[in-house]
Design brief:
Shape: globular
CATH architecture of the largest domain: 4-Layer Sandwich
Helix content: 25-40%
Number of domains: 2
CATH topology of the largest domain: Metallo-beta-lactamase, Chain A
Number of strands: 14
CATH superfamily of the largest domain: Ribonuclease Z/Hydroxyacylglutathione hydrolase-like
Number of helices: 8
Largest sheet: 7 strands, mixed
Distance between the termini: 87 Å
Length: about 350
């Protein structure tokens, strides 16, 4: 082969490599722009709920995603337990993740979580149940949930007398709180309407482990009754028609993660089967923030993944159409508020 031919081939290969490198750089820049393209929480057309005054009989504190601390001054309940927050690279590469002991200790101390009676994950994905074992081992709290949730607990060596696998329509008493878990569904927000990370956890799950080890297990709507009122926590936006028809709730924590992609009609059906069905007068969306951000950092998801502004507008439309007397507010991270306000929380 002549020197000219070899030189021509080398030049062609070089042009291809340069083109590929340019394409990779362009794709990287595009993904970076899309990842940073987010709505600001202050631009969402749902106002923040007013902070507690200290006179409330029952208060709630949102700790990001759908982790909630509920406190009546005597007894505390924790919905979910997600504090450690694996970063985006760990999530995308499915690298083993572990509990962040320092952050967990800080949170328990800072928010005075020292009367914890129960930890109740709505299902067993990592963004709901990753830290339940670590939290239970720092308290005497029971963990309520499915067999999958129990296996997360056992993997963390939580004492067996603190692990409660829920049984049908059973109710569980913690101080003046009565808790019931109603079978629900995870929102179909995976590929082509699937459930992300489906299935069950079939053996004790010890950390470190990748996030895909946290399979969904059973999903629940959590009903919490107290002499002051009744709360429904719908942590995932799944619809199980008629499941809540026989229940009343004063306040609903409404999981809205990724439902913008399911469309306006889905959100309307979801509202009717949760808010309208229970007659709730106070609705507080949760699970609207980016769960790959550090604990305490509240950023909305990139618009290309989940445009919460659109979801918020649909929620307002449904409130105005079906439940005009219902108040709709956003929680503020780490700020307690009245769970059963006797008057308008902005009054």
């Amino acid at each position: 082969m002549s020197a000219i031919s070899i030189s021509s081939i080398q030049e062609a290969v070089m042009r291809v490599l340069v083109s590929l490198m340019a394409a990779v750089v362009f794709l990287g820049l595009l993904l970076s722009v899309l990842w940073r393209d987010r709505e600001k929480i202050e631009d969402i057309p749902i106002p923040p709920i007013t902070a507690a005054t200290g006179q409330e009989r029952v208060a709630a504190t949102w700790l990001g995603v759908s982790t909630l601390l509920i406190d009546d001054g005597e007894t505390q309940l924790l919905i979910d337990g997600f504090i450690s927050r694996p970063n985006l690279v760990d999530i995308l590469l499915n690298r083993p993740v572990d509990n962040d002991a320092a952050t967990i200790n800080h949170v328990l101390n800072h928010y005075r979580i020292d009367r914890l009676a129960a930890i109740i994950p709505v299902h067993s994905h990592f963004d709901h149940a990753m830290d339940i074992g670590a939290i239970a081992n720092r308290s005497s709290a029971s963990i309520l949930g499915s067999e999958s949730t129990a296996r997360i607990s056992r993997g963390a060596r939580v004492p067996e007398d603190q692990v409660v696998v829920v049984n049908g329509s059973a109710e569980y008493q913690f101080g003046e709180f009565m808790v019931r878990l109603v079978e629900s569904r995870h929102a179909p927000v995976g590929w082509r309407g699937s459930i992300p990370i489906p299935g069950t956890i079939d053996k004790p799950l010890s950390l470190p482990a990748p996030i895909t080890a946290f399979r969904a297990g059973d999903s629940y709507s959590v009903l919490i009754t107290h002499p002051e009122g009744t709360t429904l926590v719908q942590g995932s936006a799944g619809i199980r028609e008629g499941a809540l028809a026989d229940f009343h709730a004063d306040t609903v924590f409404l999981g809205v993660g990724l439902i913008e992609g399911l469309g306006q009609q889905y959100v309307s059906n979801y509202w009717q089967h949760t808010i309208t069905a229970t007659g709730a007068k106070l609705v507080i969306p949760v699970h609207f923030d980016d769960y790959s951000r550090p604990f305490g950092t509240v950023e909305l998801m990139p618009r290309s993944i989940d445009n919460f502004r659109i979801t918020a507008e649909w929620l307002i439309e449904n409130r105005n159409k079906w439940d005009q007397d219902t108040r709709l507010y956003l929680p503020e991270f780490g700020v307690p508020f009245a769970l059963y306000p006797g008057a308008d929380p902005e009054a």
